[in-house]
Amino acid sequence: MPIEAFQKCIDPSCGLEYPIREVRIECERGHLLDVRYKSTPSTSLKEVFYKRRNHANNIFNESGVWRFRELLNFCEIDTESIEDCSKFLVSLDGAEGRLSKPYHMSKVSDYVGVQNLWLQPEGYNPSGSFKDNGMTTAVTHAKLVNIKKIICASTGNTSASAAMYAANENMECDVYIPAGEVAPGKLGQAFQFGAQVIEIKGNFDDALSTSLKRAGEGGGYTVNSVNPFRIEGQKTIVFRALESLDWNAPDWIVYPGGALGNTSSCGKSLMELYEWGWIKKIPRIAVVNSEGANTLYTLYNGKFEGVEVRWNNGKPDTDIINRYYKFMDSNGIKPKTKATAIQIAKPANIVKGLRALDFTDGVVTQVSDGDMLDGMALVGLNGFDCEMASGAVPAGIRKLMQEGVIKKDDTVVGILTGRQKDSSIPVEYHKNPKNRFAHPPKS
Ligand code: F0G
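Above: the input record for the complex with F0G. Below: its predicted structure, written as tokens.
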């Protein structure tokens, strides 16, 4: 059956369509785009994906992203042909997603009060965060359309991942970062992988608007999560979690919330899997904002002008979203959290994020910096590494459990999005005996 992939506007009443090879991040009416497929993949592929784990040196089976290539076949290739795979698919030698699966971490389970808790570290990707899942697909699309230079704005991890794939594919890479607001390890990676770093005075939102403007002027191909091909790769985070649960959907999937690319991709993967009959139940998404960068929390929960902003079948109240952005600008309200990865005030994927929350009957909560640090430290005490933004996941699950939203017998999958790239954070945490899980040094 022909695959017939295309791009389509996410607003059902707009629905403009574009060919796969067209480079754009919005339809001409300014709405975000999805990659769509006309075919319905057979559920017998579940077995094929599982068998590919025994990869026999085929890097496209070894890759935790391309192992699921039939579900993101926007290159419209023969997925069994190694020649086609090698010609079209970008991979860091099969490393992206390879080490990712959910683990039971008993100390975290006890702390949050949920025993059926599965935490999936995405920090063990080659560049150290979940971004590689989507970067490998965005750069595959860039290669498909003969791009020589990619461009992004970043709080750090996106730039590390983009720079790594660009280096490996001999592409140029410009990264726009908020000066002084990026973890040193992430900045180091951008330099190490040969990217051109452009420091912007301001925050991530300023860096993103500058980079999108430059891209529009011909300055490069945007690989931020507003690129629909990024979202395709990030769907595999959910595929791996579900595969591990034998495709029995959990009750909850929990992410930290920044620009909402993850939330969007989780929503899209669940919409597709449900429509294709691969899952019978729809897990609920919980997004965890930092208290210091809580736009989604504020708007979704009616904390601004008393209106709970919703997807509303593709017509969310964008006026209220824009009024809130203006309110923040005119009152000098800037996102501020020590978890700089999610220090974002204007989530670029907010409309797609609302769609995901609508489809999954999702919730949005917020946690303090202290809660995130405790979450991060406790993951560490189970022998797993994660950064502070990922600590939002155990912290958020605990809070939702205490509020009675998550029930103690629920099955919960939490995504630990990135690895520690600022060693001063755990060092400071553990040196202070007042911290809940501190293990201070002796002299
Ligand atoms: N966790 C980590 C470790 C991140 O780096 C990010 C985003 C998020 C969570 C939030 O994910 O944007 O999909 O909601 N980092 C981006 C960057 C913005 O530039 O590296 P999201």
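Notes for the reader.
The first strand starts at residue 5 and ends at 9.
Residues 228-244 form the longest helix (17 residues).
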